[in-house]
Amino acid sequence: MSDSNPAADAPFVGDGQSGKPVEENLKSRATWTRLLFMVISYVLVSLASIVGMAVVVLGFLMVLFTGEVNRELREVGQSIATYIYENIRYLTFNTDERPFPFGREWPSGAADED
After folding, report:
1. Would you list the domain boundaries of the chain?
2. How buried is 91 (Cβ within 10 angstroms: 0-12 exposed, 13-18 middle, 19+ buried)?
């Protein structure tokens, strides 16, 4: 066996470059704190999805009865979509920046005009 390859029973996680033993990861307060924020973020995303679906239904009813898109509902929908996106990025470890209400401001509803 070469010196560059770790033994099969080596207590390391990942690609071998991190060098953190599993025991160290299990005892890390930051890891468990992140799990707590991830669980709370998941619950908030679920609630935001329900509110988002209500915005979709209201937006459709507005178009159905008035023939026009409601600008305020569109902005609320964009804001909710951005919020869900920020949470998914945090949940999938694409960012360490905590989403609203744990670190960031509520996202703006301003969207680019198509």
Report:
1. 30-114
2. middle
More reliable by pLDDT, 67 or 112: 67
Mean pLDDT of 35-48: 95
Lookup: tokens for 32:
């468990």
Burial class, 87, CB count within 10 angstroms (exposed 0-12 / middle 13-18 / buried 19+) = buried
Reading phi first (left if > 0) and then psi (alpha if -120 to 50, else beta), residue 12 is in: beta
What local confidence, expressed as pLDDT, does residue 4 receive? Answer: 53
* Rounded Cα gap, residues 81 and 26, in angstroms: 34
78, 81, 86: which is closest to 102 by C-alpha?
A: 86
Contact (Cβ atoms closer than 8 angstroms) between residue 97 and residue 87 = no
Is the preceding omega at residue 6 within 30 degrees of 0, hence cis? Answer: no
List C-alpha distances in Å: 72 to 58, 66, 86, 105: 11, 14, 21, 19
Calpha distance 103→41 (Å, rounded) = 12
- Predicted confidence at residue 12, as pLDDT, reads 42
For the record, the structure tokens of 29 come out as: 């307060």
Structure tokens at 12: 């390391």
